[in-house]
UniProtKB/TrEMBL annotation:
Membrane-related topology note: Multi-pass membrane protein
Domain Cation efflux protein transmembrane: 11-202
InterPro entries: Cation_efflux (IPR002524), Cation_efflux_CTD (IPR027470), Cation_efflux_CTD_sf (IPR036837), Cation_efflux_TM (IPR058533), Cation_efflux_TMD_sf (IPR027469), CDF_Transporter (IPR050291)
Domain Cation efflux protein cytoplasmic: 209-284
Transmembrane regions listed in the UniProt entry: 7-29, 41-59, 75-93, 113-132, 153-174
PANTHER family, per database record: MITOCHONDRIAL METAL TRANSPORTER 1-RELATED (PTHR43840:SF15)
Protein name, UniProt field: Protein p34
Domain of life per record: Bacteria
Cellular component aspect of the GO annotation: plasma membrane
SUPFAM superfamilies according to UniProt: Cation efflux protein cytoplasmic domain-like (SSF160240), Cation efflux protein transmembrane domain-like (SSF161111)
UniProt lineage: Bacteria, Pseudomonadati, Pseudomonadota, Alphaproteobacteria, Rhodobacterales
Example GO molecular function: zinc efflux antiporter activity
Amino acid sequence: MSPTVRIAIGSIFIGILVLGLKGLAWWLTGSVALLSDALESTVNVATAIAALVAIRVAAKPADRGHPYGHHKAEFFSAVLEGVMIIIAALLIMREAWHGLVAPQVIEAPVLGLLINGGAGAINAVWASVLISRGRALKSPALTADGHHLMTDVWSSVGVIAGVILAVVTGWTILDPILAGLVGLNILWQGWKVTANSLSGLMDEAVEDGTLQRIRDIITDRGTGAIQAHDLRTRHAGAVTFIDFHLVVDGQTTVDDAHEICDRIEQSLKAILPEAQITIHVEPEHMAKHSGILVL
């Protein structure tokens, strides 16, 4: 079982635990704000399951129907997660409206808030794990799940502070107002998760820093070639696709050209182990005025 799959399975169990704790906190208090927090946790469980399915699909090797692999499955999971976050936000805002129309007194606030705070602490630790490991493993599904959980953590902090203020002041209307603000924040976070995932589905290039490292490696390791041009990159999950044209002297043998390509590929894979690299070798009359000049 891969590390990515193990973490995804862990997210499901953490999500169920946190959902149970937040549901108990709402049941004890009757707080609309705590209900909004619990509703978001139902999405956490659903998206954790979706992430696990997507990660397992993405790990499948290339086949006849998918010669480039199944790596983009994780982006679909992240898009689904963003959509579900938005749906949860709308449900929370609906509950907030009902609370505004008919505010209710909060019962057993201390115990309920302690339970909710404990659930938030669990989420904070796990969100940090998901973000750090998701980036290290280049998993969009885990990273998106981690950022989602982190918004849940901040929502929980705001909810707890607001419920305490409502109890201390006796202004019960603060409870549904706070729930509405939580809903708006979650709505914004859901949009960001969806937008970031769609960029991956649209074959977005690697970030500028990574692109510069690729350029430097081609320049440093391309000794024997004349020029490299038309460099293109895109990423899909843990895999980075790199392709470019490499211009060599017309008298260069096939073996020598192949040796140059192997040297470049090995160096690129040293920084991007999952990279899939395609190099098109061309004779010198195909050189362009702009491109990467290979020394």
